[in-house]
Each structure stands twice: as C-alpha cells, then as structure tokens.
C-alpha cells in the first residue's frame, strides 16, 4: 500500500471517464465522415456542374432549376404525394382498426400479433418481389383465378400506368400495417381500465367509448405512427424497384427512383444530388420537430 | 324488504373461487362499508353490484328487483373509482356531464345539473380545466361530482381516498360523511382502512378470503366481534388477545391469566353461560386497550372494574393518550391511560380491567364464545344504531375524547 487510495481512485476515475470515449471514437469519426461528410459533399455537388463524374466547378442554382423544370421530377413528386397520403392514411386506419379488434378479444392475441408483425421483418425487396409475383397477371392471382375456372377474372393494375402506383400502396400497406397495429395496441393497453368501466356506467356505447374517450388519448401514438410512416414512404425506394422498377414508363417513379436513375443511368449527378438534398430536407423537416418534442417530453 | 339485497352471491374466475356466498342486506339511506385486507374480494363484489362483473351464482336485488343481468348504465347507480378514472380529453364540466349527455339530457338542463354538483363540491372555478391540470384532491372531487350529478339511487365507492395524502384523506372522509348525511343517499363503500370504515359506516361488512365475517353497526363490530379475525382487524391500536384458563374460584367463574409477578384473575361477567362449558380449558381473551386503564380514569359507572398490579414494560405517549405496554399471558398488551400520568418503564402500577367488555374466543376455531342472545350493553349487534350514537362511538375510537 504505497500509493494513497485517493490518488489511485483518481486514476481509475479518469480511466473510467475516458475509456467510453476512446472506444466510441472510431465509429464516431466514421459516422462523422461517411454520413455528415457526404451530406455536405452531396450538397456541394448539387451546386456544381457535375454530370457523369463529379465536377467541382461552381454552377450556382443551375442544377436546382433543371430539377424543378424536369417533367419526370414532377411525376415523381406527384406519385410520392399520392403514395404517401394513401399509405399513411390506410396504414393508420387499418392498424388502429386491427388493434381495436385485437384489444377486444385477447385470447389468440399472441399468435395474431406475430402474424401481423412478420411482414415488417421482411425487407422491402422481398415484399416487393413477392407482391410483384402475386399481382403479375401471368403468374399470380389472375392466373390462379383462371385455373380455378374464373376465366373472366382480370387484375392487371401492375402493368396499367394509371393503377400501378396503387399496387405499390397495397404492398407497402401490407408490410407496415402490423407494425402500426402493434403501436396502437400498446397505446390501448396503456389506457386505465377503470376509465372504460366509468364510461360503461355513464351509459356510453362501445363505439362512443372508443370515439370520445380512448382514441383522443392515443394522440401521441398517431403522431409517432405518422412520422414513422412518412419517412418510410419517402424512403420507399427498394419496394418500387423490386415491384415495378418505377414503371410502366414513369408511372411509379418517386423521388428516390428518380435520384437513382439520374445519378447512375442518366449521368446527371448534379440533378440527382439536388433531388437527394431536397428529400433530406423534407425528412429533416418531419423528424427534427418530432425528435425535439419527444426529447423534451422525456427530459421533463 | 330491504333496499339492496346481496343474496348468496358467488364469483368464480375460472377455477378460483373469489367470493364464496355473500349475504348482505341494507336499507335505503344506509352507508355500507365493505372492509377487509387486500385481495379479499371487496372490489369484485362492488363491481358485481355495478354490473361490471358477471355474477357466477346468487342474486342481486335492488328495490326488490332482480338486477343480475341489467346493464350497468340501467341500474341507476354511480361509481367513484380509486384512480378517479376521469376522461383526460374532456374538461371537468365535460367529465361531470358525460353521463347526462349519454342519457340525452338537454344541454341547458345538463349545464344546470353540472353547476349544482360543482357548487356542492366547491369546484365551480375548475369547470373549464382538463383533469391533467388538477391536483389529486381536486380530481377526487370531480370524480364525486360525476357520480352526484346523476342523482342515482345507489352510490358505489371503490377505495376513493387511498390515493390521497394522509391529511387530505381525513378531510375528504369528513366531507363524504357530511354529503351522506345531507343528501341521505345510499352508499356502498370499499376500503381496506378500518378507521375509514368505523368513521363512515352505518353498517360494516368485514370480509376475509371471499367470505363475510361479520355484518353490523360499527359499534357492534367493534365491541362484539364474531371471531378473532374481526377482533384483530378492527380497531387501532388493535385488541389485546391473551391466552387464559377458565376456572372456578370461590364459586365464581374466572379467567386466570399468567403474568410475571403472579397470575391475574378476572371474573367472567359477559357470556357467562357459554363460558361455563369452557371451565378448566384455555380460551383466547380479548380486551380493547381502552378497557385497561389506570384506576383513576376507569369507568366505574357502566363498567365492571377489577384491578391488578403489573410491571410497566414501555410507555408510548401520543399526546391525547398514554399507551402503557405490560406483559400478560406471555404477550405484550396495550393499556390506555391518562395522559401525563407519572409512569415509567420498570415501575409497577395498578391496572384497572373493565371485565364487562371482555370477549372470549375458541383458540382452535377462532370463533367467538358467546351467549345465545348477545348481552352487550347498547344492544348494538341486534339493531340499527342511530347516527348520533355512531358519531359518539367514532369519536371514542379515534381517541379524541379521552
Ligand atoms: N379478472 C380476474 N381474474 C382472476 N382473478 C381475479 C380477477 N379479478 C380479481 N381476481 C382475484 O380475486 C381476488 C379479489 O380481488 P379484489 O376484489 O380486487 O380484492 P380487493 O378489492 O378486496 O383487494 C384477488 O385474489 C384477485 O387476484
Ligand atoms: Mg380493490
């Protein structure tokens, strides 16, 4: 015992203080470089003359005005709007409905919840491919119906330019509804049972108990569900690539597929960068206020 | 015909038998308190009266009508819950008026009724607030307002005060009692707190393990308990219970209790006929702390006082009283003495036992050993005590008039 205990304790404390930082610092540096570094790089490229290869000459807002005058970009924006709105509304409504039904009959809940949650475990590529097969007139549903004897059955939305976007909605809804249902179910479980008893004594029918008392209390769940779905919608690149490849024509093009094709097949890196920065800005506008309010709540 | 009649009611959740044949009848205007330890089935019974839980077996009669299968909203009852169960998305006024709204009462009349209930509970200034903006005590009032506004035949309370702090709990208890006296409503009230039960009730039902142990006025349950459980559960500090040998001494039936400095012998005056059969056997004797006093403060008018000298083990002043602990029958027993009496541990002093209040229990079955017709001085166990009688007795129990 030559060293005084306080000094030894001090050294250990300092090590404890620095060790986590040391361990985390490589990944911190990597994230800083590959995520935030490339965000900055992409932003710069969107103001440059880049075509097939990066070109660092400053071009001002040239790429941005080309983006906004592009016909395809207009279609992509329109599609994401239709897709996003339908996707969010249907998923939320269906998820809530399933959660309420499940909340009423608790018996088979474990099994049902797993069934509904499995789709979320699949990647978008698998979902997209599966639904592409299923809806392909030559392979899936239509052919099955024909072989069962229903010759006049026809379901060709997948190859119909006006309807193709809705097939993507169906597949995306199928995948995410279970997850949204689980979120609502957790919310429903958090509601005080005595409150429902009180409402029963007050004479409220079941639908009014949900409409007036329970659903208004699920507001935070609605908010979370919408934020999750909105950013999934904007990121819905792989699903569309696997299902329709953005086609027929540009019928199911969305900003993500637009960016991909401009960057890698049309050799317009500048426009692609501008569209990427735009998408990032929209997602940030959605997520940052949400995270801010969540963090503020958990701190207080 | 009684107002509310719970007739041989059973409740089973799957294989668990939670209520095992409850029989309770009360009159209009009664304040029935269901009291017992947690998990004894009080809430389950209350939920069955409300119609929130199905009755497995037996009958429930309100005003002579069988209501087993009547929907909760048609039973003309209102309930106040432990968690208050306020609707968070509605204002206080919306909460109070919700039941009327569901019954399609016109808006103007609804507003009037809400106003009246709010005045009664002094929450008029809170009507526009949301429940989240209220304190615990205010939420409690809103929950009561929601029940009062509908003017039901029967009020049900499930541990309404247990989420309040001690001071507020006493205040609200007084207020509930005043409301009951003013409005003359019939109330069934659940609590695990025996003081709440004693202060509020006109009838107490003591429950344990899904069975009714005793039904009676607070005074009857307190003075004339049916068994050891009721004796030990009701009253604070609780009844002194000691083992004693029943023998005959100079021709009289007595109870002999072992004490360090020689046995204490107390004559049997209560339940004498029944205790004759216990001669030369051990019984469990029960005496309330206030029935063991110092000779000066003994009640010689109504009581039957016998003195003995015992050594003081511990002195516990509470301000209003002085509780003195001594050894008797191998146990520590509590005596309530005059505050400020010059007593200290180790000292020997005279203890005055009021043997007219002594009760005896079968140590095996824990049942009371009593004469066929209970010979209690106030006849409390046979009939209804009036409300003034109750008020006196509750004062006594709370130790306020020592
Ligand atoms: N829905 C239920 N299913 C199974 N057992 C229950 C249910 N509700 C209550 N119980 C059981 O019934 C007993 C009585 O419960 P309860 O009436 O809430 O007791 P108390 O209100 O007296 O504390 C407890 O042992 C409890 O575990
Ligand atoms: Mg309970």
Automatic annotation (TrEMBL), chain A:
<dbReference type="Pfam" id="PF00528">
    <property type="entry name" value="BPD_transp_1"/>
</dbReference>
<keyword id="KW-0812">Transmembrane</keyword>
<feature type="transmembrane region" description="Helical">
    <location>
        <begin position="21"/>
        <end position="47"/>
    </location>
</feature>
<feature type="transmembrane region" description="Helical">
    <location>
        <begin position="163"/>
        <end position="188"/>
    </location>
</feature>
<keyword id="KW-0472">Membrane</keyword>
<feature type="transmembrane region" description="Helical">
    <location>
        <begin position="80"/>
        <end position="102"/>
    </location>
</feature>
<feature type="transmembrane region" description="Helical">
    <location>
        <begin position="209"/>
        <end position="234"/>
    </location>
</feature>
<comment type="similarity">
    <text>Belongs to the binding-protein-dependent transport system permease family.</text>
</comment>
<feature type="transmembrane region" description="Helical">
    <location>
        <begin position="114"/>
        <end position="134"/>
    </location>
</feature>
<dbReference type="InterPro" id="IPR051393">
    <property type="entry name" value="ABC_transporter_permease"/>
</dbReference>
<dbReference type="GO" id="GO:0055085">
    <property type="term" value="P:transmembrane transport"/>
</dbReference>
<keyword id="KW-1003">Cell membrane</keyword>
<dbReference type="GO" id="GO:0005886">
    <property type="term" value="C:plasma membrane"/>
</dbReference>
<feature type="transmembrane region" description="Helical">
    <location>
        <begin position="269"/>
        <end position="292"/>
    </location>
</feature>
<dbReference type="InterPro" id="IPR000515">
    <property type="entry name" value="MetI-like"/>
</dbReference>
<protein>
    <submittedName>
        <fullName>Carbohydrate ABC transporter membrane protein 1, CUT1 family</fullName>
    </submittedName>
</protein>
<keyword id="KW-1133">Transmembrane helix</keyword>
<feature type="domain" description="ABC transmembrane type-1">
    <location>
        <begin position="77"/>
        <end position="292"/>
    </location>
</feature>
<keyword id="KW-0813">Transport</keyword>
<dbReference type="InterPro" id="IPR035906">
    <property type="entry name" value="MetI-like_sf"/>
</dbReference>
TrEMBL record, chain B:
<dbReference type="InterPro" id="IPR040582">
    <property type="entry name" value="OB_MalK-like"/>
</dbReference>
<feature type="domain" description="ABC transporter">
    <location>
        <begin position="4"/>
        <end position="234"/>
    </location>
</feature>
<dbReference type="InterPro" id="IPR015855">
    <property type="entry name" value="ABC_transpr_MalK-like"/>
</dbReference>
<dbReference type="InterPro" id="IPR027417">
    <property type="entry name" value="P-loop_NTPase"/>
</dbReference>
<feature type="compositionally biased region" description="Polar residues">
    <location>
        <begin position="384"/>
        <end position="402"/>
    </location>
</feature>
<dbReference type="InterPro" id="IPR003439">
    <property type="entry name" value="ABC_transporter-like_ATP-bd"/>
</dbReference>
<dbReference type="InterPro" id="IPR047641">
    <property type="entry name" value="ABC_transpr_MalK/UgpC-like"/>
</dbReference>
<keyword id="KW-0067">ATP-binding</keyword>
<keyword id="KW-0813">Transport</keyword>
<dbReference type="GO" id="GO:0140359">
    <property type="term" value="F:ABC-type transporter activity"/>
</dbReference>
<dbReference type="InterPro" id="IPR012340">
    <property type="entry name" value="NA-bd_OB-fold"/>
</dbReference>
<protein>
    <submittedName>
        <fullName>Carbohydrate ABC transporter ATP-binding protein, CUT1 family</fullName>
    </submittedName>
</protein>
<dbReference type="GO" id="GO:0055052">
    <property type="term" value="C:ATP-binding cassette (ABC) transporter complex, substrate-binding subunit-containing"/>
</dbReference>
<keyword id="KW-0547">Nucleotide-binding</keyword>
<dbReference type="Pfam" id="PF17912">
    <property type="entry name" value="OB_MalK"/>
</dbReference>
<dbReference type="InterPro" id="IPR003593">
    <property type="entry name" value="AAA+_ATPase"/>
</dbReference>
<dbReference type="InterPro" id="IPR017871">
    <property type="entry name" value="ABC_transporter-like_CS"/>
</dbReference>
<dbReference type="InterPro" id="IPR008995">
    <property type="entry name" value="Mo/tungstate-bd_C_term_dom"/>
</dbReference>
<dbReference type="GO" id="GO:0016887">
    <property type="term" value="F:ATP hydrolysis activity"/>
</dbReference>
<dbReference type="Pfam" id="PF00005">
    <property type="entry name" value="ABC_tran"/>
</dbReference>
<dbReference type="GO" id="GO:0005524">
    <property type="term" value="F:ATP binding"/>
</dbReference>
<feature type="region of interest" description="Disordered">
    <location>
        <begin position="365"/>
        <end position="402"/>
    </location>
</feature>
